[in-house]
Amino acid sequence: MIQVKDLKKVYSGVIVVNIPGLEIKQGESIGLVGNNGAGKTTLFRMILDLIRPESGQVLSKGEPVAGGESWKNYTASYLDEGFLIDYLTPEEYFYFIGGLHQQTRAHVDDFLAGYADFFNGEILKRGKYIRDLSKGNQTKVGIASCMLQNPEILMLDEPFANIDPTTQFRLKNMIKEVIKKGVTTLVSSHDLNHVTDVCDRILLMEKGKIIKDIATNSSTLSELEQYFAIGQTAAPAGLIIDKEENH
Amino acid sequence: MISTFFSHELKAFWRTKNAGKNVAVRIIMSVLILILMLYVVAAGFFMDMILKKVFPHESLIFSFCGFVLIYFIGELLSRIQLQELPTLRVQPYLQLPVNRNTIVGYLAFTSLFSVFNLWPILLFWPFIFKIILHDAGGIAALGFIIAILGISIFNNYLALYIKRKANINGWIFIISSAVLILVMLGDFMWHLYSIRNLSYLFFGNLIKQPILALIPVFMGVVMYYLNFLYLKQNLYLEELITKKDKYKSSTEYPILSYFGATGDLVANEVKLILRNKRPRSALTMSLFFLLYGLMFYANPGFKNSSGDTMKVFAGMFMTGFFIISYGQFMFSWQASHFDGLMVSKVKFTNFLKGKYLMFTVASTVTFILTTPYVYFGWRVLLVHFVMYLWNLGITTNIVLFFANRNAKRIDLSKGASFNWEGVGATQLLMSFLLFLPPLIVYLPFKILGYPNLALALITMVGIIGMLTRSFFIKFLEADFYKRKFTILDGFRNK
User: Each residue of B221-268: pLDDT tens digit?
Assistant: First the structure.
């Protein structure tokens, strides 16, 4: 489904992403973990053609994403609030996104009815623009709009951050369901429990490189915990903090 | 502590992402302000002669004393419109062991560093030194100086107090402006009372009793203290930031849905304009500029000149003002969600078509609104129509060409007045390129004596521009993909 070839990104002389090769098959669910500045968001942005790599390329269904537009038809993603049109009400935004995928308003309304629990009464018909919602609720809008698109590829950057525990569990189940339907899923997270619970394959990034690529099993969580515990005692010198995560 | 605040603010100024531009812009601003100041100083210096001309039968000091209060009422009105609230971002200091009084005192005090507080000094002090010192003696002059400073301070804090209140409730802004205007009208239109006499009552007596100067000073201090108290009581984040929440309802524009995906994009952009301060003022400005023609057509100096040059200019400006004023910051308006647009199923061709559609609608509406100018002759309307075609065919393309070269983020939540965010060399260059081409096409033929041919040529170029739009869209799309990453990177830079 997605192929990454010799992908490299350099910010002011420091390599932030360097992936010689990565193959993601259809229906796989990938969990991306790594400390701040490991290059997770940068990798996502390159897969979405938002940043120009120094070298290498990303193929989606065999076609390069760079300059292409066909991948947008089957890829849904939510990385940050920059993906939302914040002066619209949530309803208007959902109708807009639905409209892009030739869905009628009635269809969108039907879809949203199924999300009543997830929204917890704080999103729809509250008379607020998206910019007036809290960050957690904005995340919910972003995630729901991804689901609305019936994607073949779903990409979420730290979806568990900023949202309450109940919603985190709901979200986990939602993602699991989507995976069951055969959607190729990429989720980055700092929550090792959630990510090992949801994803079949874990990619561990450090300083732009994928240093571990493991199929999830019962020992994965402890393996990861061990890695991060060690990372804590010996913080790498000259660590470059990712621009986006260092507000 | 105060000095730490100062240094933090200096750092905030120098370290903003586009500091270089800020400085350039501020230099231009300060040159403009300097020129304005020179005018004021000149007015102050020659005030005795001006007053003598305007009120030839009254004594100089009498007419001066009558004028001061009127000035200050006008000043208060313009302060309420234009003066900026001091901008220390208090949020990071609130939870630190910094005295609240220090923060509030700093906020209140720094507001004195406003150009507005300089005007009265520049305007009145020369007169005081030239005439009052000479006629009434040093102590009276000192009294005047102190009184004028006192009223300035009072005005300063009253204006800020009103502005702070208006931030919470927009009506206060309208009501206070209306009250001031009514106060003025009550004197000058309806002659219910005379502000001049009131002003003279105080300043006239000030000459005899300089001690009266303490009254305005006292008023100024009270107003400062009120401000101080208000700020101190409202130093909570939500009260500093949020406005009263109104229920925001969803809207749709059924007409636009005829245009499919393009129409949806336009609908979003219409909402962008209507729901955000700065683009909204671009819209109101373009409505306001519909009166621009009056400056030319109603002016007898231009009426007699038979040429169309001014009509070409005015027509281009009026039917194209929205394209220019809103378009010059394209795609910056959408900077905050440009990432989202890029990954969603929006074809860039449709995105561009949406821009053209919006420009067409806006221009058509403004053209229709300019039809009353037919009062000044059919030829005016003809030239407007010609320029309307030109704007649709050529101006739109130029604006979008420059949109591809603009990578400056704009924060939609900020207001328009004195907001230079997103302004750069691109805009200056563009305005040249917008106004020159029609004149280049028009002037040579006009000078040779073929004004109608010149107009026909402009029409033709405009129509060709519209007919070849699909070519331009292709060109602009290819051009955009060359610059896409620069633009995206710039837009992400907060």
Answer: 999 999 888 888 877 655 555 455 677 788 888 888 888 889 999 999
Q: Closest chain B residue to A155 measured between Cα atoms?
A: B343
pLDDT tens for each residue of B444-470 = 888 888 888 989 999 999 999 999 999
The alpha carbon of residue A100 is apart from the nearest alpha carbon of chain B, in Å, by 6
Q: Which amino acid is at B135?
A: D
The torsion of the CA quartet B122, B126, B128, B132, rounded to 10 degrees, works out to -160
A-to-B residue pairs, Cβ atoms closer than 8 angstroms: 84
List the domain boundaries for chain A. 1-72+187-247
Interface predicted TM-score (ipTM) of this complex, two decimals: 0.81
Alpha-helix runs per DSSP H in B189-275 = 195-208, 214-233, 237-241, 260-275
Sign of CA dihedral B213, B216, B219, B223: negative
> Within an 8 Å CB–CB cutoff, is residue B412 touching chain A?
yes
Note whether A92 contacts B250, CB cutoff 8 Å: yes
Q: Is beta strand A2-11 parallel, antiparallel or unpaired with respect to A75-78?
A: unpaired
What homologous superfamily does CATH list for A1-72+187-247?
Answer: P-loop containing nucleotide triphosphate hydrolases (3.40.50.300)
H helix count then E strand count, chain B: 25, 0
pTM: 0.75
- The reply to whether residue B348 touches residue A69, judged by beta carbons under 8 angstroms, is yes
Partner residue facing A97 (CB), from B248, B251, B344:
B344
Which of B368, B407, B419 lies closest to B490 in space, CA to CA?
A: B407
Residues of A in contact with B17 (CB under 8 A): none
